[in-house]
Amino acid sequence: MSDTRTVPRFVISRTFDAPLDRVWRAWTEPEQLAAWWAPKDSNPM
Asked: Are 32 and 26 in contact (CB under 8 A)?
């Protein structure tokens, strides 16, 4: 017997007005990711 239930998806999207290479670095370099996602007054690293 197989499970036929579907799993709901939750998708978040955002458009950045920035050069592609800068957005790529923001997702691939830990320091950049922390700068974009961490609260301003925190030190996540």
From this structure: yes
Q: What is the pTM of this model?
A: 0.48
- In 1-45 the beta strands, taken as DSSP E runs, fall at none
Tokens of 5: 């239930």
Phi (first) and psi of residue 36, to 5 degrees: -80, -35
CA–CA separation, 18 vs 9, rounded Å? 27
Structure tokens belonging to residue 16 = 């950045």
- The pLDDT tens digits for 6-26 are 888 999 888 879 999 998 998
